[in-house]
Amino acid sequence: MKTARLHRNLLFCSVALALSVPVGALAQQAEAASADPAPAGQESQGDPATLDTVVVTGVRGSMARAIELKRESGTVQDSISALELGKFPDDNVADSLSHITGVSISRTAGGEGQKVSVRGLGPEYTLTTFNGRILATDGAGRDFAYDVLPADVISGADVVKGAQASLSEGAIGGLINLRSASPFDQDGQQGVIRLEGDRNQMSELDGHKFSATYSNLFADNTLGVLLGVVYGKRKDRTDIAGNDGGWSRNADPNDESWLWGNTWGGAIDPNGNGELDEDEYGLIAPGQFRVGSILEEKKRRALSAKIEWRPSNSFKLTLDGLKTRLDSPQVGYQQSYYPLFAPGRWSDMTIQNGIVTGFTMDNPDPEMRLNPELLNMTEHRVVDTDLYGANAEWKVSDDLTLTGDVYRSTSKRYSGGQDTYVVLRMNQPNVARIELSGGAVPNVTALFDDGRQLANGLANGQFGGSDFNTHYMELRGDNIVDEITGGTLGGKWYVGKFAMDDLHFGVTATDRKKTRDLINNTLNGGADYYSGDNAINVGALGGNVLSHSFTLPNFMRGVNADFPRTFLAFDVPNYLNQLAAYNGNARPGGGTYDFANAAPQWNPLESYRVSEDTKAAYVQADFSGERWSADVGVRFVKTRTTAEAWDAPILSITENGAFNYTANYAEPTAIRQDGDYSYVLPAGNFTWRFTDDLQLRLGAAKTMARPPVDKLAPTNTTASVSWGEFTQIYGGNVDLKPYEAKQGDVSLEWYFSENSIFNVAVFYKRIENQLTTSWEPGQDIGVGPILRPDGTPIGTEPTLFNVMRPINGDYAKVRGVEAGLQHFWENGFGFRAQYTRNWSKSFVGDQERPLEGIAPSVYSLGLMYEKGPWSLGATADRTDGFVTAINVLGEGYNEQADAITWLTAHVSYRFNDRFSLSLEGRNLLDEAQTYSINGNPLLSQGYYRYGRGVNLGLSYRF
Questions:
Q1: Whole-angstrom Cα distance, residue 796 to residue 786?
Q2: What is the per-residue pLDDT across 520-544, written as a single tens digit (0 to 9) for each?
Q3: If DSSP states are collapsed to H, E and C, what string results for 155-188?
Q4: For residues 151 and 164, is the Cβ–Cβ distance under 8 A?
Q5: For residues 541 and 580, what is the distance between their CA atoms, to the nearest angstrom?
Q6: Which of the chain's termini has less CB crowding within 10 Å, N or C?
Q7: Is the CB of residue 72 less than 8 Å from the CB of residue 16?
Q8: Which residues, listed in sequence order, are joined to residue 905 by a DSSP beta bridge?
Q9: How far apart (Å, rounded) are the C-alpha atoms in residues 819 and 762?
C-alpha cells in the first residue's frame, strides 16, 4: 500500500471526500480540506462512471460529515456541512459557524451574523476563502462580511485552527474555507426549489426568499453542471441607543493618560467655583446620547455556476463562478441629546461613585438650554461580489499529480455621498432634567415654556417644523473597490520511502488592489453650512419636511426609562430638495444661500490607493506509520506594498457658535509610501492513534496575518473639529508590520461511537507586532489660535490636539482551552456542546493592556431529534463580555461588549421524497447586544435589539 492511514467507515469517508474536495480551489486548500490521499493509481473521487449514490442528508448526516472531516484532517480543524443540496444549517453562514467550537460572531442590523472570530481573536486575525480563493471585501479592511453571501450557495465550511505549510498564509485566529457543491457529489439529475417566508415579532415586518439549485451529469458522466439562484427580500428593524463617544470626563492630574480630559465646555464643576478641585478629578458625566431605530429593506440575490469535465481518471477541469448583490439601504430615525456641561448650564447635580447621575438644565440662554434634536441617519450599502476561476488537475503518473488554479475576486460598493447624518435642532425654551437610569437610555423630561411636554407632545403631534431649525448636515459615503487576482501551481509527489508518503509543493501569486474614495461635505465645511447663525427655521422651508409623528411597535421594550418613544417623520431626500429650493434667500453670514456650497465632494484626506503583490512558495512532507501520521513543511512569503493617500494641513479654525467650528485646509498633496516584508513560516503536525477511535494531535507553527488594508494607507482626519473635539486621527502607514505568531496546539479526540466525538484541546499563541492605538494628548500640530467669524483670534496660544495613530504593539499572549462533546442515540435524540476559554493580554512598552476584540469565553449547547420524517433541534450560543476598545476615557476605562446568548430552533417534516416543510426561529430569547464602559450599567455605550424572528419554508426536490 502507498498509504498507511486507515479509513474506518467507508460510507462516511466517501461522503466526506465528495463534499470536502473544493473543485476549483487552490491546490493547497484542496489537499487540506479533503480526506487523506488515496493510493496512487486511484482517483480520490472515484471513477466518474461508477459513482456512489448513497447520500446522507439532514442534521445527522451533516454532523457525520463534519466529524469525518475533522477526524481525517491533517491539523486541528472543525467543519460544518450542508443538510442537503442548497440547504445550510442556518439561513446565515456566520450563524452556522457560531455553533463550531471556538467561533463567535458579531451581528449587523436586523441581527444577521456578519463578522467571525476564531478562538477569541477578532475578525482581523481571520482569513476567509471560498474554495481556497481569497474573497474580496467591501469594508476598509480584510475581514469578510458574511452577510453579502447567501448560505444557499455554500455546501460546507472548514475552520482550520492549526497550520500547515500548504495552507494559505494570513490567519492567526483561524482560516475559514467555504466550499461550494460539486455536480459529482450525487449521481444524475438533482434539483431543489425552496420558498421561504420571514416574520419578526418585534418589528412586525416580513420577508421572503426564493432559491433553487440544479445539478446534472452529461456525456457518460464525464461532464457535470451545477447551477444556483437565490433571491430574497426582507424588512428589518433594529432598536438602538448609545452615544458617539458622548461621555465627558474631567482631566485628572494624577492620571498621565488623562491630563487634558475631554470636557469641551469646561471642567464639570459641581460647586461652581470655577476651579478643578481634587474631588472633581476624573469626574464623568453624560455629554451626548441618542435613541432610535434603524429600518432596513434588505434585498439579496446570487447566481452560481460550476462546470466540471472529467474525461478520464487522470484529468479534471473545473470552471466556476459566483455573483452576488446585497442591496440593504438603511434609514435610522433617532432622537439625539447634547447636554454637554458648560459653566451655568447645569444645576441640582447628583453624583454617585465619580459619575454625575442627574442634573437640571434651566438656563434661559438658547445655547445653554437643552435643545433636543432629530437625527436621521441613512446608509446606502449596495455590494457586488464576484468570484470567477478555473482549476485543472492532472495525474501525470501514479506518483505525481499537478494542479493549477487561477481566479479573480472583486467587491464593489459605490456609496459616495449617498449616506446622510442630518440633524434638526429644536429651538423652543424649556426646562429639562436628565437622570441616568442604569439602562440603555437616561430618563429625559422637558417642560417647555408654552406648557408642552417633550414626550407627550411628540406622541400627540404637538410639534412641527416651526419648532426646529436646520443644524448639522453631513452627506457622506465611500466608494470601495477591492480586486484580487490569484494563481497557483502545485503538485503532489508520492515518495513511499523512509516513512514519507507524499511531498506537496507549489507556488502562489496574488495581486490585490484596493481603493477607497470618500465623498463627503465635512472637508469643505458643507456639513455646517446651515447651522449656527446660518440656521433656517424648518417651517420656512415648506415641502412638509416633518410630515407626521409615528410610533414603532414594541419600540425599546425592556428598557425601563422615561424618554420620548415617538418619532417625527423626517424625510431626508425631501429635506435636501427643500434646502436647494431655498437658494437665493439672504444668508445671515453674508450673500445668499446656495446648496452647492454644502454638496459633498471628494475628500482626499481619507481616500487611499493600496496595492499588494504577494509571492509564496511552499513544500510539505507527509509521513505515516502504523499508528501515527505527521506533516512538516515551510512556506516562504514575500509581499510588496504601495500605498497612496493625501495630506492637507489645517490653516485655521473658526468658531461659529457653541460646539460648532469650521476648519480651513491647505491644498492637498499626494503621499506615496512603499514597503515590503518577507516571512519564513514553518509548520508541523503530528497525530498519534492510541486506538482506532482515540487520537492525539500536536501542532506547532509560525503564522502571520496582514494589517487591515486601510491601516496601510497614510490617511488622517480632523473631522471631529466640526463639533469641537480637537483630535487628529491617523489611519495608518505602509510600514506597519503584519501580526506574527508562534503557536502551539495539543488536541485529544475520542470518537467513541458512530457520529459521536469528545475532544479537548489547549492552544497557545504569542503574537508579535499586534496593532493597537496610541493616544497622544495635548499635541501642537501647527494650528494657531481659534478665530472668531470676523477672523480675529480668540486667544494667543496654539490650538492643541489629541493625536491617535495605529502602532505595532510589543506583543500579546493568548492561551486557551476548548472542549466539545457530540452524540447521537439510535432513538433519534442527540446533543452537541462546546466550550472555549481563553486568557489574553498585550504589552505596549511597560504597559499591560487587554487585547481588544477577544471574547474570554464562548460556549453553546444544542439538542436535537431526527427520526423518520421529523427533525427538531434547538441551539443556544453564548459569548461572554469582552473588551472592544481600550482607554476610551483614559487608562483603564475600556469599552466592552456585554455577554449575549443567541437561541435558535428548528422543526421540519418531510412529507415524501419531494416535499418538506420547515419552521425556524432565531433569537428566541429576544436578547439585545449591549456595550458599556467596564461593565458599569450607568456608563452605557450602546444597545442593539433585533427582536425574535421566525421563518417558514417549503421545499420541493426533483
A1: 9
A2: 998 888 998 999 889 999 999 988 8
A3: CEEEEECCCCCCCCCCCCCEEEEEECCCCCCCCC
A4: no
A5: 10
A6: N
A7: yes
A8: 874, 921
A9: 9
